[in-house]
Automatic annotation (TrEMBL):
Gene3D superfamilies: Phosphorylase Kinase, domain 1, Transferase(Phosphotransferase) domain 1. It comes from Nicotiana tabacum. One of its GO terms (biological process) is signal transduction. SMART domains: S_TKc. Its main location: membrane. Keywords: ATP-binding, Glycoprotein, Kinase, Membrane, Nucleotide-binding, Repeat, Serine/threonine-protein kinase, Signal, Transferase. The lineage of its organism: Eukaryota, Viridiplantae, Streptophyta, Embryophyta, Tracheophyta. This is non-specific serine/threonine protein kinase. The gene is LOC107760767.
Length: 203
């Protein structure tokens, strides 16, 4: 699938591990997220994440294709998104011209993806790591919210969570995603990567 995790198929990395481009027997391209030994989850945690991801079906959210779990490996297999990250697009690395209308389309798509995660998934999902590296662009430059490594299921009444958010800055709250998306909105509409202490917002 990945040519034995060849470096030529290495398309990214993060705290969880490396991501490789792979090809299924039917010819479809996928992205294989392979956990580093030090970042592997316990069986229950990994099962919970698979259950979370399997509930997600939206055109503006990267979809899970499959997974691998045994004593030596933990891998998540996602649909392959060919046009790279929003960050690379804004910086010019991809060579794709993101004019104002395209940036607006991307902004609306990412917002719809977040709204779906917050309001239509049961239980709701708070991403907690929204940034330009985690917005992918498909061949038609549709935005896809990606990387749920820090996501949290809200296993309590959502209306109560909304009420709590009005009185305190809960680490489980949707305002965290909204603040991060507002920073992304500035990046997209101004065609540059913003620096507003994003790491502090996501702690």
């Amino acid at each position: 699938m990945t040519n034995n995790f060849s470096e030529t198929n290495d398309i990214g990395s993060g705290g969880y591990g490396k991501v490789y481009r792979g090809t299924l027997p039917n010819g479809h391209l996928v992205a294989v997220k392979r956990a580093l030994q030090g970042s592997m989850q316990g069986a229950l945690e990994f099962k919970t994440e698979i259950e979370l991801l399997s509930r997600v079906h939206h055109k503006n959210v990267v979809g899970l294709v499959g997974f691998c779990f045994d004593q030596a490996e933990q891998m998540l297999v996602y649909e392959y998104i060919p046009s790279g990250t929003l960050k690379d697009g804004l910086s010019g690395k991809t060579g794709i011209r993101l004019d104002w209308m395209r940036r607006l389309k991307i902004a609306l798509g990412a917002a719809r993806g977040l709204q779906y995660l917050h309001d239509l998934v049961n239980p709701p999902i708070i991403h907690r790591d929204i940034k330009s590296n985690n917005i992918l662009l498909d061949e038609r430059l549709n935005a896809k919210v990606a990387d749920f490594g820090l996501s949290k299921l809200l296993l309590q009444d959502w209306d109560q969570v909304r009420l709590d958010e009005e009185t305190e800055d809960s680490p489980r709250s949707s305002p965290r995603d909204i603040k991060s998306n507002n920073i992304l909105l500035d990046e997209r509409l101004n065609a540059k990567v913003a620096d507003f202490g994003l790491s502090k917002l996501l702690l």
